[in-house]
Design goal:
- This protein is an alpha+beta fold.
- Helix 2 runs antiparallel to helix 3 and helix 5 packs antiparallel against helix 6.
- The longest helix has 24 residues.
- The two termini are 38 Å apart.
- InterPro entries: OSBP_sf, Oxysterol-bd, Oxysterol-bd_CS.
Length: 383
């Protein structure tokens, strides 16, 4: 069965059993990068333009510790959402804006920064491995100065997908560009060699707009990162020493899905805002069943939801209707990435208005799902 998919993009082509899934969706994964968002707070408050880039790039690297997990997250249903609050003053909303091709959008904001991401993963199945290309756009705006940062992450390779112990590696370059000042960071993620040599290692430099190195960054993406001022040749300046900028927090012991404490918070209602949208990933019946260890129910619910999604697609096509996202809008622009072009969605600002109404009026917390929100695991006709 798998032979015919070799060389293909299998992002939404293959129906997979729930036994290889984790009880989390891709929309929640988009929020997981905010665990160490205090680094972006520090970047916004930093006056040194190069140390500012160290903070911002270190934040981008932190997610790779969580991405070691080899369980597959659930693909979101079209119109599905995920909200997060009660973490570093951040309000986060993500939404599945397209089913074919699968595209997700996210927006986060606090007093120091905004984070906007559009994700359109591409894959290439190679038999016993899978290449994952992060087609998308990630932008961070620092509010104090208005500087806009653009992130291009490296691709990821899933090894021993069918035979052997599955493990992930992300060899290649990560580039964080300051679109306002012209400064940038280029980090090299070392490929894993024989017997694990070089795995997790990352190093690179902060460059000014004239592409002169100013600060070297080194460490391991599964443990910690440090930085040190350097000369024009990239050598450490005399009288300086490495300074740690990030270190991974402790993890729960013997966790079934290798979750961090923050990943558990993302699944809990501790991070849910008042008046949670009924289309939230936490409420998915297949995800909830898997979290409780009921694989049979999770499999049944996953199949039911996928069949309903196909039925709703046929219904829209028969009526010549297009799905319209609620919290994001298609701009008409196209952005280029190293792995292909992508249509650009942007946050439409309506979620902030929605949250303001909820906070202003307790009655608004009881959302009328028939008029206010699209619940993706019901037929539209049932809402």
């Amino acid at each position: 069965m798998m032979h015919k998919y070799i060389g293909s993009d299998v992002t939404s082509m293959v129906t997979l059993p729930v036994i290889i899934f984790e009880p989390m969706t891709m929309l929640q994964r988009m929020a997981e990068i905010l665990e160490y968002a205090d680094l972006l707070n520090k970047a916004d408050q930093c006056d040194d333009p190069y140390v500012k880039m160290v903070y911002a790039t270190s934040w981008a690297v932190t997610i790779y510790f969580a991405y070691q997990r080899t369980w597959k997250p659930f693909n979101p249903i079209l119109g599905e959402t995920y909200e997060m609050a009660n973490h570093l003053g951040i309000n986060f909303i993500s939404e599945q804006v397209s089913h074919h091709p699968p595209m997700s959008c996210g927006h986060a904001e606090n007093e120091h920064f905004t984070y906007d991401v559009t994700s359109k993963l591409r894959t290439k199945f190679l038999g016993n491995s899978l290449d994952v290309y992060p087609v998308g756009r990630t932008r961070v705006t620092l509010k104090r100065t208005g500087e806009v940062l653009d992130l291009v992450p490296p691709p990821t390779k899933v090894n021993n997908l069918i035979f052997g112990r599955t493990w992930l590696d992300s060899p290649g370059e990560m580039v964080m560009s300051n679109l306002t000042t012209g400064d940038k960071v280029v980090l090299y993620f070392h490929p894993c060699g024989w017997f694990g040599a070089g795995r997790y290692e990352v190093d690179g430099y902060v460059y000014n707009k004239d592409e002169e190195p100013k600060i070297l960054i080194t460490g391991k993406w599964n443990n910690s990162l440090s930085y040190q001022p350097c000369d024009i040749e990239g050598e450490p300046l005399p009288g300086t020493e490495l300074k740690e900028v990030w270190k991974v927090t402790e993890m729960p012991e013997n966790d079934k899905f290798q979750y961090t404490y923050f990943a558990h918070k993302l699944n809990s209602f501790d991070t849910a805002p008042r008046g949670l949208l009924p289309s939230d990933s936490r409420l998915r019946p297949d995800r909830s069943a898997l979290e409780l260890g009921d694989l049979n129910k999770a499999g049944v619910e996953k199949t039911r939801m996928e069949e309903k999604q196909r039925a709703e697609k046929r219904q829209r096509e028969s009526l010549k209707q297009e799905f319209t996202p609620r919290w994001f809008r298609l701009t008409g622009d196209v952005t280029s990435t190293p792995w292909g072009d992508m249509e650009v969605y942007e946050y439409n600002g309506k979620y902030a208005e929605h949250r303001s109404r909820i906070e202003a009026s307790p009655s608004e917390a009881d959302i009328d799902s028939k008029s206010q929100a699209f619940k993706p695991w019901q037929f539209e006709s049932e809402i």
